[in-house]
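Dear Dr. H.,

I hope your travels went smoothly. While you were away I took the liberty of generating a structure for the chain from your last submission, since the lab meeting agenda had it listed for discussion. I wanted you to have the full record in hand beforehand rather than looking at slides cold. The sequence, exactly as received, is reproduced here:
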Amino acid sequence: MNIRERTAPFSTDLLQSQPQAETNLDGENYSGTGLLLAKVAESFGADIGDQEVRDWRALLGGAYIIDQLLDVEKSGSVVPHITSILAGENLEGIRIGSQDRIRKYMAAQTPERQSEIMDKIGLVGILTEALTETEEAEELVRLRNEEADVYSGLLALPVEGRHDAAQRSVFNDWLASFSRAGYLIDSLVDMKEDHQSGATSVRPSLRSRAVVGRHAVSETATTLRKTPYRAIGQIAMVGFRYQVLNRKPDLSKLRASQP
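The corresponding predicted structure, in token form, is as follows:
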């Protein structure tokens, strides 16, 4: 059964749900990161509306939850969990407001956009499974870049028919590089932990670290060249909160509540 057969269009009745108030913490609801993306896009000359910021917030929160679910599952079985959330169920360990925002966002999308998103969630699961099997650092880099491209594609600004299409295209190009750099840095920092947990079969040897590190440095340099100067400090703070403060949802009870 493919992803589209698993999910029907989601009821617009979900638009009536109201998210609970919650603190503004990156790594928990991504509201700060959504505003950061808006600032970067505007610095490129794109006109960003409030609804686009809200959409980013919902998508970033959803991507973060998917990432954490996959850390637990190590496979594409995350799809049933997301389907449960979209059907109105709440998963323990994840903020209710974050789940409400995903439901509201999906309810506002066309059936085609809903299918696209669910297909991409399924693809991320496939890439995650491939990561558990690969033993080569270069293949790890390729898979992580492909995963980053899936997420940046979901977050990309619509371009067609927009008066600021050129500026949006420049931002989308920056976003793809920014996403790749972030995923490669994450792989480099977590290489030992990922190998121990079974998330990847790449051994954290000096050679493997050198390969991933070389690609991470190259992609980071590319991102910085494309990044407006005034946004660099804000981007660094987002990375600090994620990597150093480790602000992540608590999914320790996930298996007990697995659909």
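Two observations you may find useful: The longest helix spans residues 165-189. The chain has a mean pLDDT of 79.

With kind regards,
E. W.
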